[in-house]
């Protein structure tokens, strides 16, 4: 069983109070983390804020590259930890570990970049013989709060860019899956990260989160999680920078000219990977009614063959959702959606936190699985007659994270790219496709339009200062 103390000032601190983590698959305790009290957290906030980091670009890049290299040698160990605490299958958690090393390497590369800009000033009739330059400097101190669904990659997406920009961070990982976050932070220390650059805590949820969000010494809250909590943070944080990466309800538009076999494969990968617990998972399949019968039949046939179950089996393609309560809620919504008039094509079986991959046909946008973000392995098919109707349905949601379209017709593709109210549109690919350093993030209830991805996060984690110099050489 793994045990971690709060990571404070380069060491693990043990308070004697524990939070235990249970495997969603076996129900057994797989680890525990030490709890911090609000009084202790106040001290941690003070001391982290007082710490200033002055690593050179070379030193930051070196630490990040070292971490990536170690992670590459420990993929199996990391995958096992994530599987223990989330019930996600090893296939998914090995992929997650490999994404983490990508995030670290991209951050290491960007840490070396000169991020300044130069503006000549003698360019208008009001100009002067000067040049204006920009330089970036760290915010110091950032509160990072992360969700359970990609418990290590979400952490890496906040911590690696923070290291690359010389910031200090207090991380509060999800209490549902915190073990891999502590593992990541200990590994960072082992690779040479200075004390107090990254402190990691879990405590009583409300008090801990409220302090990290509202404390006046915190310059920025970087949050990934549900829209409800994100909006609560927006209301309470006060005068500080906010980046909120929130929920989604991605529509996947399948137009009449799409290759059905290709669409089926992309649908399955785009929906059920990570037990469909991804903010960008396909949540609504919108299919042209001309091809909907053939598509639905082929999709159901393949989905019913997905190997789900024991997450530790190397052949398993889908493990559990995060806990039984979540599985029960999803099952309830599936049954309500069937009662509302949808047709069950496959799935809708539950054993503890394990749910069979489920496909529903003849769904409508206001049926329960579509109306809210249903964070698990169920996907509804909604049939449409025209592209205008499909775009209207896709946008008829509070969320605006991502979308996808399958077609070879450029006019239609162009309309979807332009008219979907989302942060991302992928063509002939699932809504989830991205690189770890490309801009990523949503609008509407999915976020305020600020992006993550290594490059954008490094911008968000720094202030721009301009300075100007005389420059009279023509
Ligand atoms: P959640 O909102 O329940 O929890 C996220 C984090 O917020 C946890 O660490 C939790 O302890 C903390 N928290 C709880 N109460 C808080 C409060 N009052 N103030 C501040 N923080 C508080 O989310 P979850 O269930 O862990 O994760 C799933 C959600 O995350 C889904 O909605 C999913 O779409 C979203 N998500 C979004 C992205 C993205 O990039 N847009 C990525 C992954 C997950």
Description:
The chain folds into two domains: 2-246 and 447-466, Aldehyde Dehydrogenase, Chain A, domain 1; 250-435, Aldehyde Dehydrogenase, Chain A, domain 2, CATH 3.40.309. Helix content is 38%, strand content 22%. The protein has 15 helices and 24 strands. Helix 1 (38-50) packs parallel to helix 7 (205-214) and helix 3 crosses helix 4. It is globular. The mean pLDDT is 97. Nicotinamide-adenine-dinucleotide binds at residues 145-149, 154, 172, 174-175, 205-206, 209, 213, 224-226, 229, 232-233, 245-248, 279, 373, 375, 401, 442, 446.
Order of strands across the widest beta sheet?
Answer: 15-18-19-14-13-21-22
Which ions, cofactors or small ligands are bound in this entry? nicotinamide-adenine-dinucleotide
Number of separate structural domains: 2
CATH structural fold name of the largest domain? Aldehyde Dehydrogenase, Chain A, domain 1
Helix content class: 25-40%
Radius of gyration (CA) equals 23 Å
Structural class: alpha/beta
Q: Strand content of the residues, in percent? A: 15-25%
Query: How many extended strands?
Result: 24
Biggest sheet character: 7 strands, mixed
CATH class of the largest domain: Alpha Beta
Annotated CATH homologous superfamily of the largest domain: Aldehyde Dehydrogenase, Chain A, domain 1
Quaternary structure annotation: single chain
Provide a count of the helices.
15
Shape label:
globular
